[in-house]
């Protein structure tokens, strides 16, 4: 058992973190009502909450709630229009901003060009809700209209100076985007994705690079040989820092499977002379919003410089008997011959997804090159 000597730190979640589904106790309807009142002072909007409740807003899944608010607004104001969209986008509340996306899709349902221009606009907003829901809406257009017709129209966005616009393309076209229907056309044959990836291989934005790597990782699950061929083509010259970050994220599934070509692309030896020791790990009990600082000592006992992959997996209790798995990855660790260094990882234990953290036993596996070298566990109680 690792002795814990650190003082427990509790930190409130960052803005945008936390379980995002709207509830009776926590919702954006107050902000929405104020937004509508300030822009449409001649209309009585005091009934927004009552109309939302009558439409089952709080019982609906998160993916349907924005569409319900769009219907609520249309009923209360008696219109869907560009001026309503402008008012929603101008709001200081990011969830109200996201309602504009549902209205864009409803208002221009039969006009692909108008929908795309509206979604490009919402993708430029700097907050999580409008950015992520812009991705989902655009993803659904690829499924509805087919990949090639939509991709032809959004490919110029890859050169846009706004990182949100570039990222909405690489993210929305993910074949296996989470929480929505998959793009089966791209799972069968992802060849069209190559022209999405190439302009972004050395993108200056970390936000974009992570998305590109995630999209490539989706490809690796259904078409590993094709992805490896592309990455080998793009790595004939020494990898830039940006390209290495993308490729490391892209290859995580194939590294997990021990694919030799993946190791070669990243210039990481399958066998190494590195020893690892967890100096500071998880406490025996963890509280919600606690900050856990991990220290792992890395020692190269060999006579040559080397590289390793390092990650850790947390198996967490889910609803009922389900098990949820969280993977935390670090960049490739480079270490000189006979060198010892400490790598650090900070984990903020917060409610981040649509499901809150469940009480129970959490099992942690620390891994080097996909092989476990240290195991521990902790308990969480609400």
Order of helices and strands: EHHHHHHHHHHHHHHHHEEEEEEEEEE
* CATH architecture verdict of the largest domain: Alpha Horseshoe
How is the largest sheet built, in terms of strand order? Answer: 3-11-10-6-7
Helical percentage: 40-55%
Number of domains: 3
What is the CATH homology-level superfamily of the largest domain? ARM repeat domains
Average of per-residue pLDDT values: 92
Number of helices: 16
Which runs of at least 5 residues are low in confidence (pLDDT < 50)? none
Main sheet attributes: strand count, strand direction, barrel closure: 5 strands, mixed
How would you sum up this structure, described in words?
The protein is an alpha+beta fold. It folds into 3 domains: 19-107; 126-267, Serine Threonine Protein Phosphatase 5, Tetratricopeptide repeat; 274-380, Immunoglobulins (Immunoglobulin-like), CATH 2.60.40. The protein contains 16 helices and 11 strands. The strands form 3 sheets. It has a 5-stranded mixed β-sheet, with no helix packed on it. Strands 1, 2, 4 and 9 form a 4-stranded antiparallel β-sheet that branches. Strands 5-8 form a two-stranded antiparallel ribbon. A hairpin with a 2-residue loop joins strand 10 and strand 11. The longest helix is centred in the middle third of the chain and has 18 residues, at 128-145. The radius of gyration is 23 Å and the shape is globular.
